[in-house]
Amino acid sequence: MLRDPLFVPKHTKGRPMPEGRFWEKEYSSARVWLAGGAVWMAIGTLAGLGSAIHLVAPDFFANIPWLEFGRIRQVHVNTVLFGFVVQMLIGCALYIMPRVLATKLFSEPLANLAALFFNAGVVLGDIGLMAGYTQGREYAEYIFPADVLLVIALVMVAVNMVMTLVRRNEQLLYVSSWYFAGAIVWTVFMYPLGNVMWHPATGAETGITDAIFLWFYGHNVFGLLVTPLAVGIAYYMFPRIAGAPLYSQALSIIGFWSLLLFYTHIGAHHLIQAPIPTWLKTVSIIDSFAMMLPVATVLVNQWYTARGRFGRFLTNPSAKLMLVGTIWYAIVCIQGPLQSLAVVQRVTHFNNWVVGHAHIAVLGFTGFIALGGMYYVLPYVTGRRVYSEKLINIQYWLILLGLLDFFIVLTIAGLIQGQDWLNGATVYRTVPQMKPYMTLRLAGGLMIITGAFVGVYNVLMTFRKGEPINP
Ligand code: HEM
Ligand code: HEM
Q1: How far apart are the first and last CA of the chain?
Q2: Which of 413, 405, 396 is CA-nearest to residue 445?
Q3: What is the number of the ligand 2 atom nearest to the C-alpha of 402?
Q4: N or C: which end of the chain has fewer CB within 10 A?
Q5: Does ligand 1 come within 6 angstroms of the Cβ of 414?
C-alpha cells in the first residue's frame, strides 16, 4: 500500500475512464509517451552497456560491425536522450499542461499520432546508426528521414500545447505551462536549424561554421528542451507534494525569461579549445556564469516551497526522485560554469570528466525528474495505483548508487587523463591506466540498467495489474 495520500490523487477517485477508441481517451497520449519513455530507457541503457564493455574489453564485440563502439555509443546517447528522457518528460507534460490550464488536451489523437512519429524516428534513427548511417555530429547523428519524423512529431506536440493554451479555462498561466510550451516551440525551430536540415545528405555546414552550429544545437537540446520540460514538471510537483503554495510566482517567471536570455547563446563553451572567434568564447563563458541566476531562481523557489516539509518528499518515492533530481541540477550547474573556464578545460576537456558531467546532468537531473514525474502522474492517467512502491524504491536506489559511481569514477578518471596529457603523456600511455575506472563504471552501469528494467516492469504491470483507484 502507498503511504502518502497525495500519491493517489483525490480527483481521480471514482472517476471512470472515458469511453471511446484508445487514442481518443483522455490522457491516452500521456500513457503512450510515458510507457515509451520507460521502454527506451531500458533499451538505451543496454546500448550504454555495449559502449561501456568496449572501454573495458575492446575486442569483446570484434567482427560484429553493428555493435562497434562508434555505432553503439551513438545509439546509446540518442536513445536515452530522445527515446527515454524527452519522451518521458513530454508524457508528464501532456498530463500536467491540461491540469494547470483547467481544460482538456486539445487533441488526444494528435498527441498519439505524434508519439507514433516520434518513436518511428527513434527506431529509424537507431537502425540507421547501427547499420553505419550517421551524420556524425554529436546529438545530431540521426539521418535526415529520422530527423523529419522527429520534427513532424514535435510540431504536432507544439500545435497541441499551443491550442490547449488558447482554449484554457484558467486565465492565470502557471509557470509549468510557460516552460512546456516554450520548450517544444523553441525546439521546433532549434532542431532543424541545429541539424542543418537544408543539407539533407550531410546534415552539416562546413568547417568551423558547422562546429558553431552544432554546439548551438547540442547545447540547446539540453538547455531549451529537456531542462525546461524537467523544470516545468518540478514546478508542478513541488507545491503539490509539499501541500503549500509556490514560494514566488514572480521568481518563477524571472527564471523562465533569464533561461532564455542566457542559455541560448553559450554553446560556444563546448568550443573553448577550438579556433572560433574569441568574442564568442568570452560571451559564452560570461553567460555560463550568468546561468547561475535562472538556476538559482528555480532551486530557491522550489526548495523554499518545500521548506519545513521535506519529510513529505522522503516518504513518497516519486517525490524523492524529484527532490534528488533538483539536487543533481544544483551540482551540475555549479560544475558547468566552472568547466566553461579555459583554465579548467585545459585539464577537463576531451576526457571522462565531461562524460561524468553529462550523466549527472541528463540522468541525474532530467532523468530523475522524468522518473519522479512519471510515477506521480501514472495513477492520474491510468486510474490505477502504481503496481509496486517497493519497486520504485529499488529502482531509485539502483539508479542513484549507479550514478554516484559514474560521477565519482569518471571525474577521477578525467582528472588523471587531463593531468597526464597536460604533462605531455600520450593518449596511448594513459589508456591502460583507465582500465580499473572503466571496470568500475561498468559495474555502476549494470546497476542503472537493472534499475531501468525494474522500471519497465513496474510501469507495464501498473497498466496490467495496478490496483484500480476506487472503481
Ligand atoms: C549552468 C549550467 C551549465 C553550464 C554552464 C554547463 C557547461 C558545460 C560545459 C562548459 C560543457 C563542455 C565541457 C567540455 O567539453 O569541456 C558541458 C558539457 C555538457 N553539458 Fe553542461 N552545463 C550546464 C548545465 C547542463 C545541463 C542542465 C545539462 C543537461 C540537462 C547539461 C548537459 C551537458 C552535456 C550532455 C555535456 C556533454 C557534451 C558533450 O558531449 O561534449 N549541462 N556543459
Ligand atoms: C538513462 C541513463 C543514461 C543517460 C541519460 C546517459 C547519457 C549519456 C550521454 C549524454 C552520453 C554522452 C556523453 C558525452 O559525450 O560527454 C553518454 C555516453 C556514454 N554512456 Fe551513458 N547514459 C545513461 C546510462 C548509461 C549506462 C547505464 C551506461 C553503462 C552501462 C552508460 C555508458 C556510457 C558510455 C560508455 C558512454 C560513452 C562515453 C565515452 O565516449 O567515453 N550510460 N551517456
Answers
A1: 16
A2: 405
A3: 27
A4: N
A5: no
* Nearest alpha carbon, ligand 1 atom 28: 361
Closest CA to ligand 2's atom 32? 48
* Cα 155 from chain centroid (whole Å): 19
Read off the DSSP letter of residue 281. Answer: H
Pocket perturbation via mutation, ligand 2, pick of 355, 409, 427 by most ligand atoms within 8 A of CB: 355
pTM of the model: 0.95
Cell numbers for 46, please give them: 543496454
Residue burial 131-150, b: 16+ Cβ < 10 Å; e: rest: eebbbebebbbbbbebbbbb
For residue 294 and ligand 1, the question of a CB distance below 6 A is answered with no
Atom of ligand 1 nearest to the CA of 266: 5
Strand pairing partners for 384?
468
Residues 106 and 167 sit within 8 Å (Cβ to Cβ):
yes
CATH superfamily assigned to domain 20-465: Cytochrome c oxidase-like, subunit I domain (1.20.210.10)
Distance 103 CA to ligand 2 centre (A): 38
In this prediction, residue 10 carries a pLDDT of 42
Question: Which amino acid is present at 113?
Answer: L
CA 320/CA 322 separation, integer angstroms: 5
Task: Look at the block and give the residue holding cell 484558467.
Answer: 170
pLDDT, tens only, 165-224: 999 999 999 999 999 999 999 999 999 999 999 999 999 999 999 999 999 999 999 999
- Write the DSSP symbol of residue 384: B
